[in-house]
Batch of 2 targets.
Target 1
Amino acid sequence: MQQDSHTWMSEHPKFQELVRSRSRFAWTLSWIMLLIYQGFILLVAFAKGFLATPIGDGVITIGILIGLGVIVSAFLLTGIYVWVANNRFDEINRELIKEVATR
Amino acid sequence: MISVKRVTGLSLALCAGLCVALPAFAAAVEGPVEKQATNWPAIGMFIAFVLMTLVITYRAAARTRSAADFYAAGGGITGFQNGLAIAGDYMSAASFLGISGLVFSSGFDGLIYSVGWLVGWPIVLFLIAERLRNLGKFTFADVASFRLDQTWIRILSAIGTFTVVAFYLIAQMVGAGKLIQLLFGLQYLWAVIIVGTLMIIYVAFGGMKATTWVQIIKAFLLLFGATLIAFLVLWRYNFSPAELFGAATKVHPKGISIMGPGNLVSDPVSAISLGLALMFGTAGLPHILMRFFTVADAQAARKSVFYATGFIGYFYILTFIIGFGAITFLMSDPSYFKDGTVAVANLKGGTNMAAVQLANATGGPYLLGFISAVAFATILAVVAGLTLAAASAVSHDLYASVIARGRASEQSEVTISKLAALAIGILAIYLGYIFENINVAFMVGLAFAVAASVNFPVLLMSIFWRGTTTLGAFVGGMLGLISSVAGVVLSKAVWVSTLGYKEAIFPYDNPALFSMPIAFIGIWLFSKLDSSKRAELEERAFDAQFIRSETGIGAATANVH
């Protein structure tokens, strides 16, 4: 692409919307993952007793559920991203590519 | 005086990085390596695996002609296949045997590690995978140098790649040698030579096609084997995890305390620092980043991370069940322990053999043989991926771009890559041999710290920040490299345990908490200070790069012949 088409694309409202919404979404999810994981590490470091608390009268503890929960949350967050990207971002992207082709 | 501490177990090599990060762990899993009696079912199944991979390599070699075939498997890998291959590249013997062994010895603490190894994947997906595929062709240096100076950025990326691969590869080679010695009763040197030779054959002849299929088959076998053991364990407890955990707390010497955190995390700063290295290091591992060029487009790259995260997460949940299964099955049978005394440290072969011994307890000698063969296959797939990444940095980044300045023919580039794979393989065998008795546990931790402090910041800043210049990226990346390597060398694991000095100069176990900000601030500062004409052109070239990275317009299609 030439310089003028770069300017055209950079200033295209659809492109700006795609970039803005996707990067806001991606960074938000990244922060959520970072907070979940570092939160877990801080609990392990400072709240050992809390994590070792059994649930009900069984042997399974809050810590086991939280630990497995972090693993599941990583998978769910990737699933959410892929779902939104497939359904929302890809569509805007396809429209943009179509506009470039017919321009 | 330099005292080289003799490693008393494959534990240290295997759980590489994990132990170093938190020394309490090292003590928990140490155990002497004894050469085992020759294990024929295991050797038979291993030979079957090797023959299958050699057939695949032969067929892949016949269809590997262009550079795109060699580096990126012709771009014809689907998202699902790539997800399995990434999982195969990432799930090492360390995570399988090391984490299940850690769960066996301390229960809950094993979970802390498996969580750490997984959380980097969402970051790879959210920030890196699609943009990497849109901008690059064969290596991550393609992306980092997209609008920056080819020579300087490719040299920096190659240094980052070699450092990460060298430490990761040495740890894997030493672990492989000890593991094979233990599982098959082979001599250490022979074990290292066999691993090195096979990885040279896969990479030099079959390129990315053969490497990918070795990783896919290995991932499938490992997931199948681990699922089978977990199934047999849960079967005995009516598929009730509560019953399994209950039985484990009754036979484990530590009793109910295995259900909560032990003393693995005693120093929060080290734990957070290791956490950062694992989380962002994953997004800077050259052999993992390379895998995104094997798929058709950004959508497939995105899907492959989703599948990979699912497979890896599932696998870590299995290792948790396997570790608890090892507690209930093995600790109720004194014949698995030396002198018949049930204690964690007395497990025959050391605690890293918990999963292997459990295979015997649940499925007899044939399942034992199968799991042993799978553990070996696991190592082969990981070292092949690492070798390919380093060989590509030699041929695609250094030879084609820096030395030949883009004028090399495709054929000569591929030939250089094959020769590089041969040289790297021989070097890896040699390093594996001389490091046999040296504590290599810190090396995987170091590999992740370097990946998080060099490759990741350079990649992220060049993709997202318009102001990044060649000077900034190069100086910042080098500062990240120097500070992360220095942090590890001056930490307890190397300065005290390996070099024999009295007191560690750097007080924490992992440098990432400090070296990552140093790299990012370095890139920012030296980019700001850079007022050259080149810097101005580089900033102006950002728009074109940004449009391509966000939309995929103009992205390379790998399968051009």
Target 2
Amino acid sequence: MERGYWIRSKPVYSALLWQQKATAHLVMVEGSAGGLAAIKLFQQMQPLQPTTVIYVKDKVSDADYSVALRKIVPDDLLVFETKDEAMIALQKYLPNALMGLRIYVAGSERFMWSIAQIAGEYGIDDADIYKELTGTLARSVYCVHCKTITHEAHTNIKKCCGCGKMLFVRDHFSRLMGAYMGLMVDAESPGVLPEIEEIYP
Amino acid sequence: MSIINVTVANVEQVTPLVKHFTLVKEDGSLFPAFSGGSHIVVAMNINGRVHRNPYSLMGSPEETGAYHISVRKQEKSRGGSVFMHEQIKVGSKLQITYPVNLFALEKRARKNLLIAGGIGITPFMSQIEDLNRTGAAYEMHYAYRSPEHGAFSDELSAKCGDKFKCYVESDGDTLDFKALLSKQPLGTHVYVCGPHPMVVALIETARELGWPENNIHSEQFSAPPSGDAFKLKLSKSNLEIVVPSEMSMLEAIEAAGVDAPYLCRGGACGRCELEVLCTDGPLIHNDHYLTDAEKAAGKKIMPCVSRAKCDLLELNI
């Protein structure tokens, strides 16, 4: 990639930090790396305000931080086996939440932007959700041809699960869809593909 | 900047200090449509000197046959509000700018919390029309000194029903910001317009309670404070002028015939920003636009409300 090349829409993620000015905190993390990010956050300090943690366990890794998290937030930890269950828990949590709630998430982009979409329905701007990318750099790709979103893209080129076209995964990101733009890579010369490399491990 | 020539069609004394003016276009045509929270700038020729004051548009944004503004007579008026109160009658001619909105409602808000102090009620008068039309959730909280100063209180009560709450200071009613802001659902946006200390207190309370900056909206039109006179060098125009103590830099620049950009004339929008090339004394920043770091750096100034305690200030215009 060209040096200095930068796409404005591509999200920038950083390590989680408590927002001291708050009335409540919600921490949502996914997988062992996300669990570790939550523990790291609590090692900064134990917030004064009520804090809820939603933890989705890792399916592949052995590392399970639910025991460690249970010690930190004994009464306010919700542990789930799947992302979908966690999203249902979020949908139950948000309707009663008040302004002053700060939301922190750590996990894959797919996990974080699923949360942002649900929170968006409650009027929360995605910029006000603190995000730490952990576990994988896998991208979700939005096919500009058939409008299907293909998840788990690890390579520069990914086959669209909707129309089967080979898509070049761009850096242009849609916050609304939580996905990167994907364009047919061999439209000019059908079948002629650049080398497929894993760049989002 | 485009100008609309208007005639005053009606003047009404609303409270001992507030007058309501109805403006129609001189040529009888319709005004441009606007959105709730917009303001116009009224130009007044007072003894040969042009004063320009921003006023919020109050009527329904859908009724463009007339524009409505309200003016509070300021105790320390620089001339504008007193002129509007004492000289402007039915049939008077004025010039106004096209509407500009620096205090727009956030359309994605789940709830809108409107907070006014005194004459700060004016931008909400048009916003409420928008909110009632779209059916968006809102509450209007209006604080004022004493019953006779509650301009438009009855009208608001009729339009907003139980969404309206007023706080009369002389009756001992106080608006507790912390209590109010502590019980708002997620996705609430707060809008405040009123005296400077009230606006600052509301913003600080919201921040302390963890409200994101994007959910806090405020508008205050500061009148340009007076100060010592100083000389201004306009480098591009190759002019040296004096800023008298009762005039803002922007007004002095305009009086010299130099076309300077502006929108709000109240230190809020940042449109009039000018580059400071050189000064032999400290700048006095009175705007709400520049960050503290920018103010300290001293490279930019808002000539609508700010000035300098110096002999000579050079600006890049």
